[in-house]
Amino acid sequence: MLVKTVAIISPGEMGHAVGRELLAGGLSVITCLKGRSDLTRNFAQRAGIRDTPNLGEMLSEVDLVLSIGPPAKAVEMASAVARAMSDSGHAPPYADCNAVSPATARRIGDEIARAGSDFIDGGIIGPPPGKGAPPRFYVSGERASLMSELDGMGIRVRPIGEEIGRASGLKMCYASMTKGTLALQAAVFTVTEALGLTAELRDELMDGKEALYKQIESGVRRLPSVSARYMGEMKEIAATYEAAGVTPKFHQGAIDVYRLLASTPLAKETSKTIDQDRTLEETAKIFARHLPVK
User: Fold this and answer.
1) Assigned fold of 169-289
2) pTM for this one?
3) Cβ-count burial 145-170 (b if 16+ within 10 Å, e if not)
4) How far apart are CA 253 and CA 235, in angstroms?
5) What is 5-164's CATH superfamily?
6) pLDDT in tens, 32-45
7) Quick one: what percent of the chain has pLDDT higher than 70?
């Protein structure tokens, strides 16, 4: 194997779970937690990911860097690593696995290349390892095959060509359906609550589309906890659509929906503290109470 030690930036909910599985697969996994939140530090400790004092030392030890973090921070994280590469002289391959547009991926790739590193475009589809089927890591770029060494270690790696932007583009298209639809569903039930029609819409769906109603209830219940992160992702999706000549307004609207959800007390929940018994009607009532006053 060419890859024996992997760095993960930053080991949050997805990143720490990936790191945990890579460790179980026999790899060494490290990170640099300087400036990271207590939550991220706890995630890393829980997974057994070793901390290093600075990015330069981290880069000196690894064969591959995986950037797995909030999409709004992807460029910032890459810039910090690129500076550390230039300063330290250590430039291992860098895989950006964040939910960003092809244009953002190419921008990151150019900066990483200027620092002397090989760039891999990546896009993750699916929940963190350990929560059902393994997530799929779609990768593209001339060195994308390097990621295949991680295949089967709690993740599925699927190379889809040498062109930077293919993997991130696929992620954008997929998330535009899933997370874009969730935003629409949250908006629908916020409006029905504002109109006093939530029970009537619930009864209509339960009459012929019970499975859909249950799916909406489960999905919308957890949305506030991830809404801040999804806002950045919707921005990248909107940019992807606009670059392709398709209206970006669907997902610009989704940003507004997620901004509303982020303003509610439910946004303080985490994946561990979400009230699994909270009904869709109860959730919608909270959303409606935070609508702008007309």
Assistant:
1) N-(1-d-carboxylethyl)-l-norvaline Dehydrogenase; domain 2 (1.10.1040)
2) 0.94
3) ebbebbeebbbbbbbbeeebbbbbbb
4) 10
5) NAD(P)-binding Rossmann-like Domain (3.40.50.720)
6) 999 888 989 999 99
7) 99
